[in-house]
Amino acid sequence: MPQDRVVPVVLSGGVGTRLWPLSREGYPKQFWPLTSGQSMLQETVGRATGPGFAAPMVICAEAHRFLVAEQLREAGVAGGRIVLEPAARNSAPAIAAAALLAAEEDPHALLWVMAADAAIQDLPALHAALERAAAAARAGHIVAFGMRPTRAETGFGYIEAGAALADAPGVSAIASFIEKPDLARAQALLEGGRHLWNAGMFVARAASLLAELERLQPELVASVRAAVDGASRDLDFVRLGPAFAGAPSISIDYAVMEHTAHAAVVPADLGWSDVGSWDALWQVSPKDGRGNATQGPVELLDADHCYVRSEGILTTVVGLKDVVVVATEDAVLALHRDRAQDVKKLVDQLKARKRPEAAAHRRMYRPWGHYEGLIQGDRFQVKKILVRPGEKLSLQKHYHRAEHWVVVNGTAIVERDAERILLRENESVYLPLGCVHRLENPGMIPLTLIEVQSGAYLGEDDIVRFEDTYGRA
Q: Residue 216 in 3-state DSSP?
């Protein structure tokens, strides 16, 4: 790693529950295009590419590893490291792991830590703020980005800017941190002019972070260091060892920033949003002359200041004001924008009732492509499967179901016991219960097929893998 290049560290462990039904555990908000044609993750990484930047380091859950890899590939990002957490432990352990990994190559590496799911409208202002923060970090400070508030917001923490730093123009010491305030206090903070939104974005040298973490959180560092020492590496992935799960679950604010004498803040006005709710997404979205933001097949009549999004079916709104309506393939959400924070309570209620829609979409993503359920009945179900060019499923068998595959687009190679069968459009193959089989796309275009399953048990766990390109058990 060349000396003093900025290492982007992207934290991609969030679930984005308040953006349900679009964002779910299986496919969280950072993987969706919310404010542009790119996903939030791709936008984030795109802000930190080019001269002066090293390849990014993305910290994520193991379940999302192939989503991250595919989205980085689509964005043309090469050489990045994808660090897999065996358990979610909040931001401090994730940042500690990133600092330890970066320090293996350069203890003085300059880390730029940011969430994968924030929107920023003014990139020149962002990079100007980054330059000021980097200069302060080189002087030994741990620098937070503080966003100038535009409203009395109760959903963010605040940073009180203190005295200007003599060794870092445009950067101030941090006088205090303030937890999410009530509305009256948020209004007072806005009017006072000294307080900034805490954007959860930081710049610091790896050595500076590690020194303060060692001093303030020695048990955390011991667990994370053991996890890094016990990490395994395959493809672009760094799998942290199981000791990571023993680290305290704590944010970097609580672990370091509120206790270190080296904390600083760079004030910035970037058009920033954490896109943490449907109301927040409405605020940063383009709107029509009546203040409505729409996405997908949507029709409005006499509607004002609404956010309406559809992922497929025609969605219509008549005579409503200040509402959110979101339609996905298997769920519809309707609420007043003032209740946007209550979506998390709704998801908790769905989980308590064991509704599968709380966490999983009908479309399920895999390293080779995706599948989605179409019809399910007694002892049968129908799925549509898409396999990307050059990819293949695992060599597998099932104990409880047989399968019938019909190719509707592209070309397939099917292994069935000792046979190797080439299928083209409108051709099919039968896979009897217990046969060892595999599906591969040898072509240059996506392979789409319809799968009909029949049997006494149709769960996804009825699978025995003999060989897998992607290292799945």
A: helix
| DSSP class of 126 | H
Q: Are residues 437 and 339 in the same domain?
A: no
Residues 244 and 122 in one domain: yes
Question: What value does the mean pLDDT of the chain take?
Answer: 94
What SS3 class is residue 200? strand
pLDDT at residue 18 is higher than 90 = yes
Both 165 and 286 in one domain: the answer is no
Cα dist. 296→34, 315, 334, 347, 366 in Å? Answer: 12, 9, 16, 24, 25
- 408 torsion bin: left (phi>0), alpha (psi -120 to 50), beta (else): alpha
pLDDT of residue 31: 96
End of a domain among 321, 352, 383? Answer: 352
Q: With beta carbons less than 8 A apart as the criterion, state whether 13 and 87 touch.
A: no
Q: Quickly state the pLDDT bin for 2 (edges 50, 70, 90).
A: very low
Is the predicted pLDDT of residue 100 greater than 60, yes or no? yes
Same domain, 251 and 293: no
Side chain identity at residue 338, one-letter code: D
Query: Would you say 66 and 31 are in contact if contact means Cβ atoms under 8 Å apart?
Result: no
Cβ(220)–Cβ(247) under 8 Å? Answer: yes
Among the candidates 239, 273, 307, a domain finishes at 273
| Statement to judge: residues 305 and 371 lie in one domain | no
Q: Which structural domain range is residue 293 located in? A: 281-352
